[in-house]
Design brief:
229 residues; alpha+beta; five-stranded antiparallel beta sheet; four-stranded antiparallel beta sheet; 4 helices; 9 strands; disulfide bond; FAM3 metabolism regulating signaling molecule D; membrane
Length: 229
C-alpha cells in the first residue's frame, strides 16, 4: 500500500470514530457546548461596564438656576388681600404657606441658622389686633448669623412700633420705615450685618394702583442668600 493510501485510510477511520462518538453520546456534546457558550458569553458580559448616569440637580424654590454651593435658595411671596396666604420657601423646602395652614394675617417670619440652613423657628403675628410684645419677644431671639425671612399678609403696619421698625432696619431693611397700612412687603435679611439687604420689595396700598380692591398686588422676591461662615 502506498503512503498516500495509508493517510487516506487513517483519516477516514478518525472521521468514522468521531461521528460514532457524537451519535452514541449527544448529551455530553451538548453539555460541553453549553459550557463553552457560557464561558465565552459570560466573559463578555463581565467585561461590560455600565456608565454612571449623572444625577440631575433641579433648582430649589422655583429658581431658574441652581445657587452656588455657599448660598441658600429662597423664595418669598406676600399674601393676596385676605384670601391667599403668603409663602416662604427656603433651601428647597416650603416652610410657611396657606396650603400648609401655618400662616396668618400680619407678619409671617422664619428664622434660619445662617451656617447650616436649619430652620430655627417660624411664626406669624397679627399686626392689626395683636399684642406687640409677642412679636418683640420673637425678634429679640434673633442671634448674629441668623437669616430672617418676612412676608406680610393683609395688614402689617397698624401695630408696628418704632422699636419693631428699628429691629428690621438693623437686619438690613431699607423699606421698613415706609411700610404702611395694608402694604404688601417681603424681606430677607441677616442679623449681625451693617449692609442693606438687596432682597426686599414693597407695594404701597393705593386706590389708584391696587389690584385687589383695598389691597395692593402680591410682591415676591427670590434668589440666593449667602451662607454665613
Amino acid at each position: 500500500m502506498r503512503p498516500r493510501d495509508v493517510v487516506y485510510a487513517v483519516t477516514f477511520l478518525i472521521v468514522i470514530l468521531v461521528m460514532w462518538g457524537i451519535y452514541t453520546n449527544p448529551p455530553y456534546i451538548h453539555q460541553r457546548a453549553r459550557v463553552i457558550q457560557q464561558h465565552i458569553f459570560g466573559a463578555q458580559r463581565a467585561t461590560v461596564v455600565t456608565a454612571a448616569v449623572p444625577e440631575i440637580s433641579h433648582p430649589k424654590c422655583s429658581l431658574s438656576k441652581n445657587c452656588p454651593i455657599d448660598h441658600f435658595a429662597f423664595q418669598i411671596k406676600s399674601g393676596a388681600a385676605t384670601v391667599v396666604g403668603p409663602k416662604i420657601c427656603f433651601d428647597g423646602n416650603i416652610v410657611m404657606s396657606g396650603v400648609m395652614n401655618n400662616v396668618g394675617p400680619g407678619l409671617n417670619l422664619v428664622l434660619v441658622n445662617g451656617e447650616n440652613g436649619k430652620i430655627e423657628k417660624f411664626d406669624y403675628f397679627n399686626m392689626y389686633s395683636g399684642e406687640t410684645k409677642a412679636i418683640l419677644d420673637f425678634l429679640k431671639t434673633i442671634k448674629p448669623g441668623m437669616i430672617v425671612l418676612v412676608a406680610s399678609f393683609d395688614d402689617a403696619a397698624t401695630k408696628m412700633t418704632d422699636e419693631i421698625r428699628n429691629i428690621f432696619a438693623g437686619l438690613g431693611s431699607s423699606s421698613i420705615k415706609d411700610v404702611k397700612f395694608r402694604d404688601s412687603w417681603v424681606f430677607a435679611g441677616g442679623a449681625g450685618t451693617e449692609q442693606k439687604s438687596p432682597f426686599e420689595k414693597l407695594a404701597a396700598n393705593s386706590q389708584k394702583t391696587n389690584i385687589y380692591g383695598n389691597w395692593p398686588e402680591v410682591v415676591e422676591i427670590a434668589g440666593c442668600f449667602p451662607r454665613k461662615i
